[in-house]
Write a structure and sequence with these properties.
Elements (H helix, E strand, L loop, with lengths): L1 E6 L4 E9 H18 L12 H31 L9 E4 L7 E9 L13 E6 L4 H14 L2 E4 L9 E12 L2 E5 L5 E6 L7 H7 L7 E7 L13 E15 L5 H5 L7 H36 L7 H21 L11 H20 L6 H12 L5 H10 L1 H23 L1 E6 L2 H5 L3
Helix pairs in contact: 1-2, 3-6, 6-8, 6-11, 7-8, 8-11, 9-10, 10-11
């Protein structure tokens, strides 16, 4: 095999590779012979199919597979010989036909940058610590009770926290002219007073009112109001209170506990399970906070490194596709990949730097940590064993999980070698996105 290399830019390379044609032909013959022994064709006895028939039926496919494998293997050998680290799959150009006893192809690709030693000892990292207290367990149990509350009629005036069912109409005028919503009659809606989900103005007007009362209020509707005809407008609202309901929380008894799959152990087992879930969530959030802190500082100190443009473009396209999918579900439009280039560049820089630190310091993927992470993630589902099986069968899912674990390992390694200041936060503070 003959290899020549050409620099097309800071990170762009072009390899020209020549492989002896007889190597290719011998592989084609071997594959065709294997096909002849194993294939079954109507009208021919096994192993007795004429070579011309094998060539006619399977030759193009075999030759295509052989040339692809030959290029893949020789390319990997060539980049290894030249000490190159391709950032992405190469762009291959070849006729695939032997010429002058050789098969020639060119491969254009970008390489990962040569960063050199990365001194993480100078990074100043803030590491958040936290723990789950009894009060946090109590608060979560109250949240679970609230999620299973019942609404019962209240024969009194409406108070904050009550569910109010009412009818309303809004009308006004602005630079676009007069308007009314709905055009005729009244809309019937429900809201929890004090939640702000229906606008504070209407909810405040309904407080201390009883079923059958009619109220009016001048309301400034927010720009994201559910009714586009009223969004961002001021209107005179007339509302009639139809029904008031108050919430009734369930007792933390055996029936309540069994709803969470706990048949034995009572309140103590229930509290232990709640604490375990909170601790798992907290562990994940603290890990995410540390990774964000470490990667952010790492990228900031290496802001000028050259990065493969192909990786940035691919990341920007992926981010744009994800945003478009979410926007499509909400009936909205999003910008194209160009709007995500800055975020994409930071992500690529993070991946390159994390990968270089792992390579330079011989940080290997901890398979036990992968298994623990998968088990923890799967435990949030009703059938965790099926989730584990799904990941084990899907190389793409497992690859993503392994990448996240490796990032966590590198973040932990950096934190062990950087200048770290610990900051203790309460559970609630720690769980808020940073």
């Amino acid at each position: 095999m003959q290899v020549s290399i050409e620099n097309l830019g800071k990170l762009e390379r072009k390899l020209t590779v020549r492989v002896p044609a007889d190597q290719y032909e011998s592989q084609v013959k071997a594959r065709l012979a294997e096909v002849a022994r194993s294939v079954r064709l109507k009208g021919f006895r096994p192993g007795k199919i004429p070579p011309r028939v094998i060539e006619q039926r399977f030759g193009p496919q075999v030759r295509g597979e052989t040339i692809s494998e030959l290029i893949r293997n020789s390319f990997n050998e060539a980049v290894g010989k030249e000490n190159l680290r391709p950032a992405m799959a190469p762009e291959i150009d070849t006729t695939g036909q032997p010429t002058d006893g050789q098969i020639e192809y060119t491969a254009k690709f970008e390489v990962l940058p040569e960063i050199g030693p990365i001194d993480v000892g100078q990074l100043e990292i803030t590491k958040v610590t936290s723990s789950v207290t009894d009060a946090d367990v109590d608060a979560m149990i109250e949240t679970l009770r609230a999620q299973r509350r019942e609404w019962v009629p209240a024969a009194r005036a409406a108070q904050p926290g009550d569910m109010a069912l009412f009818e309303y109409a809004a009308q006004g005028s602005d630079t676009s002219g007069s308007f009314r919503h709905p055009a005729e009659g009244m809309d019937r809606v429900g809201t929890i007073l004090g939640s702000g989900s229906m606008t504070t103005g209407i909810e405040e007007a309904l407080l201390n009112r009883v079923a059958g009362d009619t109220v009016t209020a001048e309301v400034d509707f927010p720009a994201d109001f559910r009714e586009p005809a009223l969004a961002g407008r001021r209107a005179q609202v007339e509302a009639k209170l139809i029904r008031v309901q108050e919430s009734r929380l369930p007792e933390v008894d055996d029936a309540f506990i069994k709803a969470f799959g706990i048949a034995d152990g009572g309140v103590d087992k229930f509290r232990a399970d709640v604490r375990a879930n909170l601790e798992r969530e907290l562990k994940g959030m603290l890990s995410a906070r540390l990774k964000n802190e470490v990667v952010g500082k790492l990228v900031a100190t290496h802001a000028a490194i050259d990065l493969p443009q192909g990786m940035i473009e691919r990341e920007a396209e992926m981010l744009a596709q994800q945003a478009q999918e979410q926007a499509r579900q909400q009936g909205q439009a999003t910008p194209g990949p160009e709007a995500y280039r800055d975020v994409a560049r930071r992500r690529v820089a993070a991946g390159v730097l994390v990968g270089e630190i792992a390579r330079a310091n011989n940080i290997r993927l901890d398979n036990r940590r992968v298994a623990e992470t998968l088990a923890s993630f799967a435990s949030t589902y009703e059938e965790p064993e099926r989730v584990v099986e799904l990941y084990q069968r899907d190389p793409q899912l497992m690859g993503g999980l392994q990448s996240r674990v490796m990032e966590d390992q590198v973040a932990d390694w950096i934190a062990d070698h950087a200048q770290v200041t610990e900051q203790h936060l309460s559970f609630g503070e720690a769980m808020r996105p940073s």
